[in-house]
Design a protein that fits this description.
Number of helices: 7
Radius of gyration: 18 Å
Structural class: alpha/beta
Number of domains: 1
CATH architecture: 4-Layer Sandwich
CATH class: Alpha Beta
Order of helices and strands: EHEHHEEEEEEEHEHEEEEEEHH
CATH topology: Nitrilase/N-carbamoyl-D-aminoacid amidohydrolase
Strand order of the largest sheet: 5-4-3-2-1-16
CATH superfamily: Carbon-nitrogen hydrolase
Helix content: 25-40%
C-alpha cells in the first residue's frame, strides 16, 4: 500500500514577493506540522500584479526570486516535498514564464513546468485577460516520478484541455496538480465540475490549490481548493476563499483500482477528425 499525506495551501497572494512569502510561509508550516509530506501552493504563489509594467519591473529569475528562494529553503527545513504551484518569473531570454516548480526535501528544484495554455478571454462581466501578452507558453507536458508517486503538472486554464491530462495519465501519472487563480465567475460555474471530470477521465488524484478572495491588485479569485480521488469524489475541500490549508491522505493504490473498473485509458482508440464545418 502506497500512501502520502498531501496538503493544499490556499492563499491570497499580494503584489510583492516579500509579502507573498510572509503570507504563505506560516500556511506551509501549518501543513507540515499536521503531517503533510507533500504540500502544494497555488498559481502565482510569489506575486500577483495586474499592472503589466509593475509586474515586469518586479520579476526575477527563479533562482533570484525572494519567494521562490524562501519556499525552497522552507522545504529543506521542514523535510517536505513542495510544489510551488507556479511562480511568475523572468526567463533567461528576458521574457516571462508562469512556471511550476517541484522542490525536494533537500531544497532542490527537481522538475519544472511552464503553463502551456494561455488564458486569452473576454468574460461576460467585461473582464479582459490576455496571458499571451505577458508570458511565453510552455511547449511540453511534464511528469515526475517522486518517491511517493508519479506527478503530472498543469496550471489553471490547462484544466479546460482534457487531452493534456489524458496524455499525462497514459504516461503513468497517478496525481495531477492543478494549481490555479480562477476568476470568480468562471470558478463558481466550472471549477469543481472540471476538476472532478479530469479525475474521472484519467482515474487519477487531482490536487488543486487555489488563490482566493480580493487581492491587492484588484482581482478577485474563487478559492475552494479541492482534492479529488480517482473515482471523482471530493475528499478534501476549502469551503470558502479564505487563506488556509486542506489535506487528505492519498492511497495511490486507488488509481489502479479505478482504472481497472473503468478502463477508458486502455479502451482509447485513434480516429480521424471530422473536416472543419462538416
Amino acid at each position: 500500500m502506497r500512501k502520502v499525506r498531501a496538503a493544499l495551501v490556499q492563499t491570497r497572494t499580494p503584489a510583492s514577493q516579500a509579502a507573498a512569502l510572509a503570507q504563505i510561509e506560516p500556511l506551509v508550516r501549518q501543513a507540515a506540522a499536521d503531517g503533510a509530506q507533500f504540500v502544494l501552493t497555488p498559481e502565482g504563489s510569489n506575486i500577483l500584479q495586474r499592472d503589466r509594467a509593475r509586474l515586469f519591473a518586479a520579476l526575477h529569475a527563479p533562482q533570484d526570486d525572494p519567494a521562490v528562494r524562501g519556499l525552497a529553503a522552507l522545504a529543506a527545513e521542514l523535510g517536505i516535498w513542495l510544489l510551488i504551484g507556479s511562480a511568475l518569473v523572468r526567463r533567461a531570454d528576458g521574457g516571462a514564464a508562469n512556471r511550476a516548480m517541484l522542490v525536494s526535501p533537500a531544497g532542490e528544484t527537481v522538475a519544472t513546468y511552464d503553463k502551456i495554455h494561455m488564458f486569452d478571454v473576454d468574460l461576460p462581466t467585461g473582464e479582459r485577460h490576455r496571458e499571451s501578452e505577458a508570458y511565453a507558453p510552455g511547449e511540453a507536458a511534464r511528469l515526475f516520478e517522486a518517491p511517493f508517486g508519479r506527478l503530472g503538472f498543469s496550471i489553471c486554464y490547462d484544466v479546460r484541455f482534457p487531452h493534456l491530462y489524458r496524455d499525462l495519465a497514459k504516461a503513468g501519472a497517478e496525481m495531477l496538480a492543478v494549481p490555479a487563480a480562477f476568476t470568480r465567475p468562471t470558478g463558481e460555474a466550472h471549477w469543481e465540475v472540471l476538476l472532478r471530470a479530469r479525475a474521472i477521465e484519467t482515474g487519477a488524484f487531482v490536487l488543486a490549490p487555489a488563490q482566493g478572495g480580493q487581492h491587492e491588485d484588484g482581482r478577485g479569485t474563487w478559492g475552494r481548493s479541492l482534492i479529488v480521488n480517482p473515482w471523482g469524489e471530493v475528499i478534501a475541500r476549502a469551503e470558502d476563499d479564505e487563506p488556509g490549508v486542506v489535506a487528505a491522505e492519498l492511497d495511490l493504490d486507488e488509481v489502479a483500482r479505478a482504472r481497472a473498473a473503468i478502463p477508458a485509458l486502455r479502451n482509447d482508440r485513434v480516429f480521424s477528425s471530422p473536416a472543419a464545418g462538416a
